[in-house]
Every structure is written in C-alpha cells, then in structure tokens.
Design a protein that fits this description.
Helices cover 0% and strands 51% of the residues. It has a 6-stranded mixed β-sheet with strand order 3-2-1-5-6-4, with no helix packed on it. It is mostly beta strands. The chain contains no helices and 6 strands.
C-alpha cells in the first residue's frame, strides 16, 4: 500500500542531501528522506511525501505557492 502524507520541512542534511519532515497531524518527524528530482526546500516549507508499505519515503514536492 502506498500512502501520501503532508508535512513541513524541519531539517536538511547538506552532506547527504536529505530532509527530515515534521508531520504534526501524525505527531512525529520522519527519518532522513530524499526529494524527487533533487528539488530543494527551505525549512518550514509544506511538502507532499509518498511512503511505500515498507516505510521508504520520498518528498514529491512543495504544496501551495
């Protein structure tokens, strides 16, 4: 099963080019995940994420303007 989640960028690891995403409605912060197509985001940007049944996640893109 594939699941989408909406959250906010909370941290960026410049060395690994990964992000951590805060999901306030779910009450947790993700582990380090990659953004599709090497997109870059600022802290607190609202993003849409995709998770596989195995728990692997990716940031699909920014939500809103």
């Amino acid at each position: 099963m594939i699941e989408t989640r909406i959250g906010y960028i909370s941290a960026y690891n410049e060395t690994k080019k990964t992000y951590r995403v805060n999901f306030p409605k779910l009450g947790y912060v993700s582990g380090e995940i990659l953004a599709v197509n090497n997109q870059s985001f600022e802290i607190d940007t609202q993003v849409l994420c995709l998770y596989s049944a195995e728990g692997d996640g990716f940031i699909l893109g920014k939500i809103g303007a």
